[in-house]
Amino acid sequence: MMPLAFDLFLCGLVLAVAVAAVSGRELFGSIVFFIVYGLLMALAWVRLEAVDVALTEAAIGAGLTGLLLVGASARLRRLQAPEEETGSRKARAATAIACLSIAGLIGAAVLLLDPRAPGLAPMVDCSLAESGVGNPVTAVLLNFRAYDTLLESTVLLVALLGVWSLSDERSWGGHGGLRQYARPGGVLATFGRTLPAIGLIIGVYLVWAGSKQPGGAFQGGTVLAAVWLLMAVAGVADAPRVSNRLLRLGLVAGPALFLAIGMAGAMAGDFLRLPPEHAGNLILLIEAGLTVSVAVTLALLVVGPPQRDLPHGEPS
Amino acid sequence: MSVLDLITILFTGAGTVFFIAGTAGLLRFPDTHSRLHALTKADHLGLGLIAVGLAVQVASPLLALKLLLVWGLAVLAAATTSQLIARVALPPHLERQKENAGQ
Amino acid sequence: MTEMPVSSAQLFGLCGAALIGIGLYGFIAHRHLLRRLVGFNVIGSGVFLLFGSTGYRRVELGADPVPQALVITGVVVAVSATALLVALIIRLAQLTGSARLPEESPGGGR
Questions:
Q1: Chain C 30-49, residues with CB within 8 Å of chain A CB atoms
Q2: What ipTM is given for this predicted complex?
Q3: pTM of the entire structure?
Q4: Spans in chain A with pLDDT lower than 70
Q5: Which residue has the higher pLDDT, C38 or A304?
Q6: Which residues contact C20 (CB under 8 A, 6 or more apart)?
Q7: How far apart are CA A210 and CA C75, in angstroms?
Q8: How far is Cα A102 from Cα A81, in angstroms, rounded to an integer?
Q9: Mean pLDDT of chain B
Q10: Sign of CA dihedral A308, A311, A315, A316
């Protein structure tokens, strides 16, 4: 009874914050409510015994997405794009009724699901010993369904190419447009010097621990991306030029390594087949490459398209 | 109920009291700086008490150290952001004074 | 032990369905593109919650890791889409001065 009461309370809270995020009057307020919503969703994931997903949701869903949205709203305010007026009352009521009925239909479908279906957990448990890792989610991500993860890392790269393609012809190859507000001796600069060492250890630990406990390449890569972004915003490091060769090597290292291991498996039998005696080490290798690529790609996605090479720290 | 459970209830209860006080301050205080003052109590002291209350429940000292590391990082981040928000929220003539004094 | 009217998994599934409805409303009813993006993300996380809750049905067998892995993939893809959309919205605002689609601006469509 008690767990259900807590789940009920958590769901009510999540729904209330989601309504606030979607219908707030000010843009900035609704974005802040969206970040809170992401953190509450991480709690819901912990209640569903999905700690890896909770880590990912907190880091990427709440943290990185919130960062993107706040940065976008700040840039839009600087470009003086005006806020909106809402549409007619009748249109809004009709939309609300339509959305309510869609939600109702999906909810009815949820209730019709077979509550005794065993799912795929027994199958994963049988093959977990041969997968090379102890964490079943990592085993599914990097061994049983490695094809999905390979394509996912490619999607990240394609999104970055899309963001880069939005830059001006003249600024191609330049720096990304991250503003640096930090005074040289100030609080942010000090923070930007203290945190990276700790953040580096935590990020690498998350990746390494992902083989036995909740963790993994995406969670650790996001922490590393956040550390790099902090260093850039605090004025400690510079967002590199887009044409930097080392940067581009880091971007493709993950997918390329993954693909190479897959092809090696193809020559031995099936594409992406990991032989059980080497699976643990191969997965660690893939995760190392993925972490570097995910960290660099996510940081560059937040930084945005290259802008004209203006004097240090003065983008549009 | 063992002694450890009692300690946990005591410390997390005290931490929750600080969080309630901080939230009440956030909702009731008139301007940004007094709200920051209330929030730092919740973040630093409240989170610390909850972390200690949970740390007595874990099996190994390494896990307890991890919980305290969480508290340390939260304190670092909260202190930095409170400073930054407080500076941004200064009225203009005080901000100029601070700039001249600092530079 | 009395039979609960709805299990934890079903509760979270219903919550996910409600979130899809809320996000859909935000996506359709607003004209400012960043608010539509917030609605889009709420729809996405509602879908993930619904999907993830199907992995919790037989609690005694442990949580099903396959939906969890797919949801992790989904979160990463959603953030890539959000980053691309943010870049597009900022570019649109740089070129036209407003954060709305041209056919929905007060001046009318082309």
A1: 30-32, 34-35, 37-39, 41-42, 45, 48-49
A2: 0.92
A3: 0.91
A4: 81-87, 176-181, 308-316
A5: C38
A6: A102, A103, A106, C43, C46, C47, C50
A7: 18
A8: 33
A9: 87
A10: negative
**B99/C1 Cα distance (integer angstroms):** 67
Chains B and A in direct contact, meaning 3 or more beta-carbon pairs closer than 8 angstroms: yes
- Residues 49-88 of chain C with CB under 8 A from chain A are 49-50, 52-58, 61-73, 75-84, 86-88
Tokens coding A264: 């090696």
Q: What is the mean pLDDT of residues C56-61?
A: 80
Whole-angstrom distance, CA of residue A273 vs CA of residue A262: 7
Rounded Cα gap, residues B51 and B35, in angstroms: 23
* CA torsion through residues C98, C100, C105, C106, sign: negative
With helix as H, strand as E and coil as C, how does A242-280 read? CCCHHHHHHHHHHHHHHHHHHHHHHHHCCCCCCCCCCHH
Rg, C-alpha atoms of chain A: 22
B76–A194 C-beta distance less than 8 A: yes
